[in-house]
Amino acid sequence: MSDDSHTMLFVTFDDPAAALAAFAEAKELPGARQAAVLRRSAQGLLDTPESWVRGAGTPTVATGIVGGLLGLFGGPIGVLLGWTAGTVLGGAAEWRQFQDGAEGLLVYSKDLAEGHAMLIVELHERHREPADELAARHGGSLLRRPAEEVAAEVRAAERAADQATEQAARAAEEGHPAPAERGEQ
User: For residue 14, what is the DSSP state?
Assistant: First the structure.
């Protein structure tokens, strides 16, 4: 592969410790933008022990600085208020980005077996070898998907969840059980 492609890597591991070791290296893959480890306990509980986003915090700091500079026109109190407002706006933008990423992780966690872990990496990939070698070195099974397809699946799952929530709310308003409570899916 010589062209740069926006890719999602899903690497599953029988051993959660191997996923954590691979995570540490995944952050250094060429073109890596973000990574997370999902772990499902023997009891079926899902956990995200590690996550990373390249440049996290940058929007919050940048908007805080811009707000502070704009606040110079209002004197010392203006700087304080501008910095605070800018930081809050930047933090809100990062929080929304985090929520979108978390929803995507949940979509792909449904097939994760109990006691196993999954490393998910978003990257702009020019060559497959570094990721292939990382998965092999840590005993993982690698699935590579175009990021656009993954994003479309996440959006479809979000729409389905929104529709189910709306149905349940309408049913509750009407005093009828929701489809799931009637045994329907």
Answer: S
Neighbours of 79 (CB within 10 A): 17
Partners of residue 122 on adjacent β-strands: 8, 34
pTM of the model: 0.65
Instruction: Concatenate the DSSP letters of all residues of 60-71 into one string.
Output: HHHHHHHHHHHH
Per-residue model confidence as pLDDT tens digits over 52-67:
887 655 454 455 555 5
3-state helix, strand, coil in the chain (%, to 5): 55, 20, 25
> Which of the pair, 180 or 117, is modelled with greater confidence?
117
> Residues 43, 144, 55, CA angle at the centre, nearest 5°?
85
**DSSP states of 95-147 as a string?**
HHHHHHHHHHHHHHHTTPPTT-EEEEEEEEES-SHHHHHHHHHTT-EEEEEEH
Please say whether the beta carbons of 4 and 12 come within 8 A.
no
